[in-house]
Design a protein that fits this description.
heterodimer, A: about 525 residues, mainly alpha, three-stranded antiparallel beta sheet, 21 helices, flat, disordered N terminus, disordered C terminus, B: Arc Repressor Mutant, subunit A
């Protein structure tokens, strides 16, 4: 379940069990599978087949098919030991199998084996397989594979077992296995349910998700000494699968890989190495400014901290630095992840710069225009917070925009501290358009200089470029008068509608990667 | 046992949901505070099922089918078990040692009761009206879940959040774990109502849709998972074969409209919010003070935005608590007193934020500002009469120096504790804003440092 109050973003390396292998499913002998002769077409994914089947087509059966059906029911063709019910089922399956694929014409019905013959053949082969274990036989159509849906969970089960074998001592194996399968089941379940219920109102409270979540919570509770009795039945299992890894890797650099299984200790760097890594990364960032590299390194750094359950001032520092760097590069998705973590880390009472990041969070919410988040944010601030200069600045930004005072807003923009101006850069264009929409309604014309000042541009040139790039190129004209000498007038009235539509468009899309 | 089940039989004989729900209540009625205790003492764990079965089946008066009788037996036994835990928890509380464990036992037994109720209703063993009895049971379940969470929170304070087991840190872990569980149970009840395929509408569980939806809203709001409510609204909207809305009981309708109104309000769809809240207001029982006050809490900010309308004194008087809260704000808007407005807003901020109306109320500062600017306009007086014109023809001065507005703003903001300095450019900015928002008609001429207002309707909606 994802309760929206928890603005936690799922980290990229949350342990999940995707299909990481293409190895074929173990050959199961699905004798009772109603779909015959699948091999010709079994490259089709199950889901597609399923969706076809769900909406039966009204078909006018071709005469060949009708004749085939008639022959199937003919008493002369009955085979001893195959009941009429079995035969009918098989018949239905056979015909609908090809009907779904519009393949009736491709089949030579008069010579096609009758359902009872098919069944007989299948049974014979089954007996053969069972007795000899042989998979191949003379028949042109080998047996059908088991349904894909089942295969998937088996796959991950196997995968889990495999990984468990590889990475953890045997006494943990069962626990881990159960956890992994649990995950996999959760996924299939969810999709299943989603497909089943149209207008699905309950997917958010999906039972599997909820169980998972509850389990997660209990993981946390159990890490305390004071485990309440109702949590205890799970205790052992959780402790085992959730125990921190103790890293042994001494390398400073490490590329980030999304975890799909518990990490091996030899790939994880212990704290003292990570501390050196951080120093190295900071230097590299200053020297090279290669964001892709830095982001990747920080992610692996964070992952190593996570899997070793390291939660201290150093953790805070890592997240803070990563957050600042991603702000600098305008990577709000990554920033948002760090921010969420930081909020929780500060809540644990760890040392850091909570005021700085609260200020960012306010600006961030200003950017996302999420009113209910803002309300929650305001509810969270203490009086002391509100008087802190950084937070106060952010709050002033918020209220300036809420009251439509672009004049104040752009002054605040120029006065932003820390990384605040990077965040404000994210919505400065939008607010400039907003201000222009305002000004273009309120004035007949203004000077270029006035706009430069009001909209916080560095100089007339950039202001002019901004206007021209937004379609107001013909509205700027040179004027001379005695008082001001040469200056530029902007005839805004004529472009009021244009700016209004630009403004609306700018506010419509606030799209952030990684944002829930 | 016979004796304590007599009230059930009587209640059942009425064929109404509420009397039966009263029998199955976790709270003893005021006139008989010992009822739960007596009920509990009438049997014990071993005998309860047999005794209830005997009492219900031996009595042919009730005329229920065997299947139905079994269902009621199951429910009454479940209820007895819950009552037992309630009594035990009560006793523990009297001895001052009520911990979370006792209360969780109450929660668990009540959850079992609710679940078996769902089971029997979906199995078709109970009469159609039982869905409303279930509603009462579920509502009690909600309260019990909230209380259970309180006990849990006390037992393991929030500081013990140590689940940094993944990159996800979930703050406030499991603070309302039980209520979340309850929410899932309500979801099942809701599905039970919505998905009833009984073609006979008089027996349909579809009549329970809105009251269960309301129960879900309450739960989601409490859980601070408000957005989940939208799913409920959506699935109701998608269900085309519900009975007409106006045929539902008024209580269901008012609450439902209130919640959909608040949901629209929170999504800043003020037009829709106003419509729904108005409907709730119109149908609200005149003497339910609390409900009326709740509706007004959102309806008034709504109308401030949609119509720039401020509530009359008589309207505010209907909700004294609310009047205390937003009364000062409203009078400042009327007077165009910006400093007063800012102070009142700051004063009420915690309360407004709690009700999620702060950001909306903040926007009504525009109206306060409009009223101030309007005063400047009025103070400017009239153009001099030209020849042949009479007093009737005279028109107000439409060209007003910027400095007049700037002075007014400075006067308005120089009041105690405002600490605000207004720059000339900001005055212009605020004026441009008013024009943009349509609160004022005209334009600013920087060359002449003048504001040129429309000759007619300079301040729309204010009769000038």
């Amino acid at each position: 379940m994802s309760l929206p109050t928890m603005t936690a973003t799922w980290p990229a390396y949350n342990a999940v069990t995707p299909r990481t292998t293409l190895q074929p499913a173990p050959a199961h002998v699905g004798l009772s599978s109603p779909v015959p002769f699948r091999s010709a077409l079994n490259s089709r994914p199950q889901s597609e087949i399923g969706s076809d089947a769900s909406k039966p087509k009204k078909v006018e059966w071709p005469p060949a098919v009708r004749d085939y059906v008639r022959r199937a029911f003919d008493a002369d063709n009955a085979i001893k030991g195959i009941s009429s019910a079995d035969m009918q089922m098989k018949l239905k399956a056979t015909i609908s199998f090809y009907a779904e694929r519009d393949a009736h014409d491709a089949i030579d019905w008069p010579t096609y084996p009758l359902p009872q013959e098919l069944l007989q053949e299948e049974r014979r082969m089954a007996a053969l397989t069972l007795s000899t274990g042989a998979q191949t036989n003379g028949h042109a159509n080998p047996l059908s594979s088991p349904p894909t849906k089942k295969r998937k969970s088996q796959d991950s089960e196997e995968l889990a077992a495999l990984q468990a074998d590889a990475t953890i001592p045997p006494w943990r194996k069962t626990n881990l296995g159960s956890r992994m399968t649990f995950d996999a089941e959760g996924h299939t379940d969810k999709r299943h349910k989603k497909n089943a219920a149209s207008g699905d109102a309950f997917s958010k409270f999906d039972q599997a998700d909820l169980d998972k979540r509850r389990q997660r919570f209990q993981l946390g509770n159990n890490s305390n000494k004071t485990t309440p009795p109702w949590g205890s039945p799970r205790k052992e299992e959780d402790d085992a699968s959730n125990a921190p890894v103790i890293g042994t890797n001494q390398a400073l650099e490490k590329s980030y890989f999304r975890l799909t299984a518990p990490p091996k200790p030899e790939t994880v760097r212990p704290l003292h190495v990570l501390e050196k890594t951080l120093i190295m990364l900071r230097q590299k960032w200053k020297a090279e400014k290669n964001y892709n590299y830095i982001c990747n390194q920080f992610k692996s750094l964070r992952q190593d901290l996570t899997v070793q359950h390291i939660k201290n001032a150093f953790t805070v520092k890592v997240y803070e630095i990563h957050a600042r760097i991603s702000l600098e590069k305008g990577d709000l998705g990554e920033y948002n992840q760090c921010q969420t973590q930081l909020k929780a880390l500060y809540a644990l009472g760890l040392e850091g710069k909570p005021e700085e990041f609260k200020a960012y969070r306010i600006l961030y919410i200003v950017y996302t225009c999420n009113k209910s988040d803002m309300n929650d944010m305001l509810a969270e601030l203490t009086l002391a917070d509100k008087s802190h200069p950084w937070i106060k600045h952010a709050l002033d930004v918020r209220s300036a925009l809420a009251l439509g005072s672009y004049h104040k807003f752009f002054k605040l923009y120029l006065a932003a501290e820390n990384m605040g101006s990077y965040l404000m850069d994210m919505f400065i264009e939008r607010e400039r358009l907003n201000a222009l929409a305002n000004i273009s309604r309120g004035y007949a014309n203004v000077t270029l200089r006035f706009l430069t000042d009001e909209l916080g541009f560095d100089n007339d040139e950039t202001c002019r470029e901004f206007l021209e790039s937004h379609g107001a190129q013909n509205m700027i004209e040179e004027k001379t008068n005695e008082k001001n000498g040469v200056h530029f007038q902007v005839k805004l009235r004529d472009v009021a509608t244009l700016f209004e539509s630009l403004r609306a468009a700018a506010f419509r899309k606030v799209d952030i990667k990684g944002q829930i | 046992m016979e004796a304590v089940l007599e009230p059930f039989k009587q209640a059942y004989a009425t064929g109404l949901a509420q009397p039966v729900a009263e029998f199955l209540s976790p709270i003893p009625p005021g006139r008989d505070p010992g009822r739960l205790y007596d009920f509990y003492r009438a049997s014990n764990d071993d005998k309860i099922e047999g005794e209830v079965r005997y009492a219900l089946k031996a009595n042919r008066k009730t005329r229920m089918s065997n299947k139905e009788a079994e269902a009621w037996i199951d429910l009454i036994v479940g209820y007895w078990r819950a009552v037992k835990q309630i009594i035990l928890a009560d006793e523990a509380a009297n001895q001052g040692r009520l911990g979370d464990r006792q209360y969780l036992a109450v929660y668990d037994t009540w959850k079992d009761l609710t679940s078996s109720f769902i089971k029997h209703i979906s199995g078709g063993s109970l009469p159609p009206w039982a869905i409303f009895t279930l509603y009462f049971t579920a509502n009690h379940f909600r309260r019990i879940a909230i209380k259970a969470d309180e006990y849990l929170a006390r037992a393991k304070p929030a500081t013990s959040v140590n689940s940094f087991s993944d990159d996800i840190v979930v703050p406030q872990t499991a603070r309302s774990e039980k209520l979340e569980e309850a929410a899932r149970v309500f979801n099942r009840v809701f599905a039970l109502c919505l998905g009833d395929r009984n073609p006979d509408m008089s027996e349909s569980r579809k009549w329970g849709v809105y009251c269960i939806a309301n129960l879900q809203f309450k739960t989601y709001f409490k859980l601070k998972a408000i957005s989940l409510s939208k799913n409920v609204v959506k699935s109701i909207a998608a269900q085309s074969d519900l009975p007409p809305f106006h045929l539902y009981p008024r209580a269901h309708r008012v609450t439902y409209r209130y919640y959909t109104g608040v949901l629209a309000f929170l999504q800043e769809d003020y037009a829709q919010a106003e419509k729904d809240l108005q409907e709730a207001w119109d149908s609200c029982y005149a003497r339910s003070q609390k409900n009326k006050s709740l509706i007004l809490t959102y309806l008034i900010p709504c109308r401030l935005i949609t119509q720039h309308a401020i509530p009359s004194a008589t309207l505010l008087a209907e909700a004294p608590g609310l009047a205390r809260l937003i009364g000062p704000l409203v009078s400042c808007i009327k007077k165009g007193d910006l400093t007063g407005f800012d102070n009142a807003l700051a004063e009420g901020e915690p309360a407004f934020v709690k009700r999620r109306i702060f950001l909306t109320l903040e926007r009504s500062r525009d109206i306060a500002l409009r009223n101030l600017l309007r005063k400047v306009y009025l103070a400017a007086g009239y153009d001099e009469l030209k020849e042949g014109q009479t007093d009737k023809d005279r028109i107000r001065k439409s060209r007003i120096p910027l400095i007049n507005f700037a002075t007014a703003l400075r006067m308005g903001l120089s009041g105690e504790g405002s600490g605000q300095v207004v720059e000339d450019d900001e005055v212009e900015c605020l004026l441009a804003n008013q024009i943009y928002k349509g609160l004022m008609k005209g334009y600013i001429s920087r060359e002449h440092a003048m504001v040129v207002l429309n000759k007619k309707g300079a301040f729309p909606g204010t009769r000038i």
